[in-house]
Amino acid sequence: MQESLPEDLKIEVRRRSAFKAARNDPRPTPPPEFNIRRMNRSSVAGTSGDSSEDLSLASDWSGASEDEIFAGFEDLGQLDGRIIKQEPIYSGDRQVGHACSLALDLLDRYGRLKQEFKDHPVKKGSGVWRAGLDGDDIFLIENLEIDRQYRRCGLGSRLVRAMLETVESGTLYYTAIVRPSALNGNELQCESAAGRTTTELTSEDISKSFWRSLGFRRIGSSSWFGFASDAKHPSRHLSRADDYELPDVPLGRLDLRLQNDLIKALTSGDNDYAEVLSRLFDDVVKDDPRWKLTDADGNTVLHFATTKIRPISVQWILSRTTELLQQRNNDGETPLDALLAKLENIRTTDYYNLEAEDVSDYFSGFSDAAVSCLMSLNGSNEGTDDEWQRLKYGCTCGRCISGFLSPRMRSALEYQAEILSDQLLEDISNGELWVANNSSCLYLFSHRLRNKLKASQRMRKGLVALLGHIAACLQRNMIPSEHNVEMILRGAKSSSSERFLQRGGSVEAVATMLFRWAMESDELAGNPSHLRLEAFDAKICQVPACRNDHEFGFVSGMCGYEGLSPIKY
C-alpha cells in the first residue's frame, strides 16, 4: 500500500566544498558539488511552521559531520548532481564515474556536443539539439533515490525542481543532463537489449517517462536526456510525444549458434572470419535476405567485420553484395559510421581500469588495416597516396597537406607567424627589454639561448627571419618540418637566420614557439580572450572545416616537433 507524504516536510539543498566533502565522506571518490534531500522534520525539536514545503539553502555547516547535520531527520529521498564547466579536456586528464560516461558519450575534447548528435541523419534524433550545448554549463544529475513507500507521490519531481532552482541561481545558462536508466541507482549493465529482462526494460521506460514529464528531452539518439535552462531553446518546445525514441529490436535475427561461430572466427583473425563467411554465404545471391540478418543490436556481418577492422573480410563481403553498406544498426550507424566511431575512440581515448584518459595529442595515424577498411567502404580499393594519407590521419576536408595539416590550421599558422614577427620586431635594438617583453613567446627557449638573444641583435633578427621562412613553407603547401624549412632557407639568397642557427638556435625551437602561439590563440584549443581580426575569421570561414583544424599537439608532433597540449587557463 502506497503511503502518503507527511504534511510537515523540508527540502534541504546543500552546496558542499571539496575540502569538507573529503573530510566528512569516507568514500574514496568525492561527493558531488550539490546534494539535495527531502526530509520529514516533524521529529526535529524546535521546528515550527504550517507550510507544507520549506526550501532552505545552506553553504556552511560549521564543520559538522553529515550524521550530526541530519540527526533526527527521516530520509525520504536524495538527489546528487554536479556542475561541470564546459572547457577543453586536456591530454593526460582522466575522467571517472558518471562524468566520464557523459564526456565519452556526448562531448568532444573541447566540451562541445559531438557533431554526430547535431547533423547525423539518425543520431541527431529529434534535431532540437542541433545548436549543441556550446557555452552552457552542464548540471549532471548522477543519482535520484526516493524511499520506496513514497514513490509516485510527486516527491521526485519536487526534488528535481528544487535542485534546478538552486543551480539556476548560480549560473547564467545551463543544461541539466541525466541518463534515465540510472534512476534510483538501478543502472542497467546489460550489453544489449536481448540481455535485459522485462522488469529492467519497464523500469527504464518509467524512468524516461518521469524525466520527460519534467521537460527533459533525449539528446540526439543517445541514452542521455537534457533540460535547457533557456526557455527559447528548441527542446523546450518539443512535446513529450514527439521526443525521439530508439528503434525497436530488429526482427531478422541471426541464429544464435551461427552468431557465436561468427564471433569466434572474428576473434581468431581476419582469414578465419572470411573463411566462415565463405562457408555460410558463398552461394547466397547479393539480394538474399539472409545477408541482412543481424544480432540483437542490429549489427550485420559487415558491421562485425568493420568494427573488428578485418579488411580481407570487408572486401570479401563487398565483392558478394553491397546491400549492407546502407543498413543501419540500432544506434543508427551504417558499417562506415560504426568504423568511424571506433576509430575516433581509438584516436582520442585510452582506458585504464575505470578511468578514461584523453590521448588526442599523441595520435600518430590509424593502422593500415583500418585505412584499407575505410577505402573499401568508400568504394575504392586502390586510392592515391594522398587519399591514403588523408584517411590514415583523420582528414575530413579532403585537402589536408600530407593528410594532417588542414587549410584552416595552415592559415592560422601563417597568420600567427605574421603577428608574432611584428611583435618581435618591436624594441629589437634593445636586447634586455626585447627579451623581457617577449617572455611569453620565449619561455620554451633554454636560459642559455635567451641570454644569447639578449646579447645579439643579429640573432634576434635571425629568429624573426626564420619565422618568415616557416611561413613561406606553409604558403608553398609544404608541412613546416625542419627538413622543409631548411630547404627554404637554403634557397634564400641571404638570411640572418643562419646566424641564429649557428649560435645555438634551432628550427624546432622557433616552430614549436609558433605552434604554441597559434594554439593559445585558437578559439577552442586556446584562450578565447585572445583577440583575432575579423578579416582572419572571414578568411578561415572560406575554407572547409576539418577534424584536424584544432589538433595542434597532433600536427606539431607529425611535423617532428615537441607535442603540445592546450594550456589550462
Automatic annotation (TrEMBL):
Biased composition (Polar residues): 41-50
Listed CDD domains: NAT_SF (cd04301)
InterPro entries per UniProt: Acyl_CoA_acyltransferase, Ankyrin_rpt-contain_sf
Source species, domain of life: Eukaryota
Region (Disordered): 16-58
This protein's name: N-acetyltransferase domain-containing protein
